[in-house]
From TrEMBL:
Belongs to the P4HA family. One of its GO terms (cellular component) is endoplasmic reticulum lumen. Catalyzes the post-translational formation of 4-hydroxyproline in -Xaa-Pro-Gly- sequences in collagens and other proteins. Its EC number is 1.14.11.2. SUPFAM superfamilies: TPR-like (SSF48452). The gene is P4HA3. This is Prolyl 4-hydroxylase subunit alpha-3. It comes from Salmo trutta. InterPro entries: Oxoglu/Fe-dep_dioxygenase_dom (IPR005123), P4H_N (IPR013547), P4HA-like (IPR045054), Pro_4_hyd_alph (IPR006620), Pro_4_hyd_alph_FE2OG_OXY (IPR044862), TPR-like_helical_dom_sf (IPR011990), TPR_P4H (IPR059068).
Amino acid sequence: MLYYFKSIYSACVIISVILMPLSFGEMYTSLLNVKQAINVERQLIDHLETYIEHESERLEDIKRFYAKVSDLHSEVYSGPSAAMANPLVAFTLIKRLQSEWLNLIYSDEAQENTQAFRSGYKEVEKEGSLPKLEDLQGAAKGLMRLQDVYALQVGGLVRGHFQRITDGNPIDIYSPTVSVPLSGDDCFLVGKVAYELEDYYHSVQWLEESVRLFRGAGGEWSPENEGTLEDALDHLAFSHFKTGNISYALSLSQELLNHDPMNGRVLKNVQKYERLLVDSPPLLSTDTGLKRPNTTYLRTRNTYERLCRTQGTQPTHYENPRLFCDYFNNDSPGLLLQPIRREVLSLQPYVVLYHSFITDSEAESIRDLAQTGLRRSVVASGEEQVTAEYRISKSAWLKETAHPIIGRLDQRITLLTGLNVQPPYAEYLQVVNYGIGGHYEPHFDHATSASSPLFKLNTGNRVATFMIYVSTIVAHTKSRHDFKCFFLMFFSDTFPLSLVFQNAALFWWNLHRNGQGDGDTLHAGCPVLVGDKWVANKWIHEYGQEFQRRCSPNPEE
């Protein structure tokens, strides 16, 4: 099956016009929330600065006391014994030993400083703006998703590079203007997330980097770290055991015993591995035993990832004389003086790109209006709506009453398509912001089950999708790879296309004329590699269109 790419993403397969309660622990699902976390950390930096200042003052007092006592011992007490005959000298010695040393040792100042620091942290925590454990796990899964879909080398990611091995050489597929290397503890936490999911394919790769970095640091522990070299060795050894690499599991366990020789559990593991190697000696093989875990949802994973990895490269054989560009007014009086540039991208399925559909200021307004309403995106599951790992984003629904711009967009869509986009014949404008490695695996916009919540509007299925690209352009180089994070893919019998146009809109029909779903509209959004992706979706339903003008599936009709 041939296919084409688009630089604008699709949206969800659900309908919801009521804002769901805000659920914490979902910061990773929206880059907007991740950006807001910068201000949160600035608050913590301020609290830490105050703590350091108070602790510095306390330590200066301790240093002063130390200097005073040291001087007395070097200048007074080391002299003639007559010095102690002086009752003033004797009194001050007794006072220090009975009072001053006790006041210093049992001072509450350190505890008070620590308590004030902790209180500042708790104040920030009460605001609900700190990431939860779910966020850390979700961010780690996002990195592993990017690793898989774009075939990225973990070693490159650790150094802050997005690299893929091509012909035996690491090739940068994206060169960010700003990046940071990962620490041994960073890698340990990613590996630990995979480990706890029993995903040893990923845990081995990330824990290997963790062990390497911890070793390079001499195994020194930092107070901000959760993991240590011993922790990384422990998890890595068991991960290798689970993948069948018993020899390496034994070697790592023996190294761990050098650091913790009294660890009874590891001693038992060593004995177990030694027995296994005696009973079943390892065969010489180049197979590492690392196998990616299967997915329970994505049946087209290989095709999906292959398309994402092409990064929108267009084949040289792409030609179709029936596809064209023009200035389109749909015979509408409202567009006669200012037609919009239309580009017909595909005839089956029928897909049209409208260039410069919105302005920069309109795009900014849409993003601003959506911010307070963003909630975790959901998908249809029977008659319910649930969150899913195969869709990582947040969505907001904007009514026409939210701002005059929403009504103007609806009117503009009607002028272009001739369709009735007023509720209940269309859904409210859905605005979507994607998170760390945010994606939406292959799906249809139209309902494929009679029990879908889409039918609660009693206006039929989603006959068409109108998607508006409201992202800001990523700072870019001369490489086209800068835009790979915005791909929309269709798995259709057309030639592949790849276009990125800021403020553009994409339109396609989801149903055939007989009301049946068009299988060629299966599409997906590749994971966001770098960038802040926003799209706005208008889903138009079957009913209410009976007396409206329709843009023809075939422009020649």
